[in-house]
Amino acid sequence: MKAGYKTGTEKPQNLQNYKNKNIMGTNKSASMEARLKNNKDLVISIKEYTRYQPTSTEIKKENYEVFIANAESAMTDLKNSIGLLSTEKRHCSGLFEKLNITARNIRSETGELKGKYSNEYEQVNSIVKQITGENISQYSAKLKEKNKNLKEGEEGSGGLSVSHLDRKSMLGNFRLLLGLLRSYPDYDPDDETLKLTALEAFETELKTSLEKVAERETAYTNKRSRIIQFFDHKGGLHDRAIRAKMHVRRKYGSSSPEYKALVNKNY
Q1: Burial classification of residue 260, based on how many CB atoms lie within 10 Å of its CB (0-12 exposed, 13-18 middle, 19 or more buried)
Q2: CA-CA distance, 231 to 37, in Å (whole number)?
Q3: Phi/psi of residue 239, nearest 5 degrees
Q4: Structural domains in the chain?
Q5: Can you tell me the distance from the alpha carbon of 29 to that of 210, in angstroms, rounded to the nearest whole number?
Q6: 35-66 burial by CB neighbour count: b if 16+ within 10 A, else e?
Q7: How many CB atoms lie within 10 A of CB 235?
Q8: Structure confidence by residue, pLDDT tens digits, 184-229
Q9: Which segments of the chain does DSSP mark as H helices, in order?
Q10: What is the DSSP string of 107-134?
Q11: How is residue 50 annotated by DSSP?
């Protein structure tokens, strides 16, 4: 079974875990924004503390402030990367929705030219079903009907989901379809969008969009890795905040307003 397909045997708990994971992923950027702000507030506070004179260069006021500025710049890069990735994914989704429509129109054109019971139509129809996922839908419908008639205690078969069709496979099948159409010497539809030159240009557009999505995903992953270095690694914002608070506590005391202003915050 291909990766990305769902089976009909997934448990509700697994689905909930999947949803929770997505929610956590959505909140990560916002969480980093809050932590960045808290660190900026911390630096604003310690700049007013005359006794704040740590030995470590990493938590000295000026160095801490520069580090925060660099982290803020990296956050901006990350947000820009997320925006570019989202835009390209939407564009790519639109193109593959268009592919489904185009493939069905090619099938209809072939039926009109050759007849629904011709070998040409059957060949085209077979590939179109793989592009659109109709083969999966039909298979799942048959399984659903079969599972209805199961006796008590019998285990049903899992279906497949069309929603996660592999776009590279869809593009590969579209290329097979174009190769098939080229072998038909009389394939010359009046519809300009279904002519081979237009379909070949569309195939290039699909390929380019998939490549751009992959590039954007790589760029996002790299920027995401970079931003994590600023937050959670040794010498990152979390580490520096802990050490800065330790210094304030030593200099001012745990009951001081200077120290209390820095606690109970997520750094």
Answers
A1: middle
A2: 12
A3: -65, -45
A4: 30-144+161-260 (1.20.1260)
A5: 25
A6: bbeebbebbeebeebeebebeeeebbbeebee
A7: 14
A8: 999 999 999 999 999 999 999 999 999 999 999 999 999 999 999 8
A9: 12-46, 61-114, 119-132, 134-148, 167-182, 196-231, 237-252, 257-260
A10: HHHHHHHH-TTSHHHHHHHHHHHHHHTH
A11: T
CA distances from residue 82 to 78, 105, 125, 204 in whole angstroms, order as listed:
6, 35, 38, 25
Q: 192, exposed or middle or buried, with CB in 10 Å at 0-12, 13-18, 19+?
A: exposed
Share of the chain above pLDDT 90, in %: 75
pTM of this structure: 0.69
Distances (CA, A) of 189 to 58, 97, 105, 134: 70, 22, 11, 24
Residues in Cβ contact with 181 at an 8 Å cutoff, skipping those fewer than 6 apart: 106, 124, 187, 196, 199
Q: Is the CB of residue 180 less than 8 Å from the CB of residue 123?
A: yes
Model pLDDT, residue 149: 58
Q: How many residues does the chain have?
A: 267
Tokens 């803020």 sit on residue? 72
- The predicted pLDDT at position 155 comes to 53
pLDDT, average across residues 46-67: 96
